[in-house]
Amino acid sequence: MAAVPRKGQRSTGEETRAAGVEQAAVPSPLADSFAKALERTPPKPGRPIRAANVEWRYHAPHEAYGRSGYSQVSNDFLSEVLAVLIARHGMSPAQSAVLVFCMGRQREGRLKITHVKIAQHLGIERANVTRALGSLEEWHMIQRRANSLILVNPLICFKGNGDLQQEVLEQLRRDAAVALRKYFPDMRDDAAGEALREQFPAFSPPALPKPRSRQLAFGDNDVEGQAC
Questions:
Q1: Average pLDDT of the segment spanning 170-199
Q2: What is the pLDDT of residues 25-54, one digit of tens each?
């Protein structure tokens, strides 16, 4: 004979159904905000409400060319720094191309590639790639490390979520602090703090050149080796 639940005690089936109802009834933050709004502004007296519905609409996922996903890129860097430098010839074609290549290939701010492979991909001389990387490093847009590792400044471009970006930024700042103390152990704390604000990944845009008085026509060939 099946056991009859005592008063105040639920049967197994009732417990299962109740658990399912409780689990399904857990409100999302948006649903909770709707409920609070309804509590604050109850319907005006009059005709009784027959039904109330909430429709959920999700944003479409990003669609991007290629299979490697996309990076978060600073709009201010693109519009206020990179575009102006390119237009006013503050950056050479090789410097611009190398930077955009590194931004597109980085994963979590890093890419491992040789100067030769970059040159082969872009179709330019390896020496131009080396000079371009040197200029980009002076501008704190990238940083070269040992074993052909290149770091793209996470403040201008990063592939990964915000938590991961913060971890990378903190590690780069710790690396800068360790290097500063290694080479300048007697530096005062206030001077060290000031110096750290000028270390990678801190980013201060290079000085923008004045607008050119003469625009180059399409097809003009600058000597790339001299431009870098």
A1: 84
A2: 555 677 677 667 666 666 666 777 777 788
Cα distances from 90 to residues 3, 45, 131, in angstroms, run: 86, 69, 15
Task: Return the SS3 of 13.
Answer: helix
CA dist., res. 36 & res. 31, Å (int): 9
The residue ranges of DSSP E strands in 82-182, in sequence order, are: 110-112, 142-145, 149-152, 157-158
- pLDDT above 90 coverage of the chain, percent: 48
Q: What share of the chain is helix, strand, coil (3-state, %, to 5)?
A: 45, 5, 45
**Pairing between β-strand 157-158 and β-strand 149-152 as defined by DSSP bridges:** unpaired
- CA dist., res. 105 & res. 113, Å (int): 10
* 183 token code pair: 């080479």
Q: The whole model's pTM is what?
A: 0.69
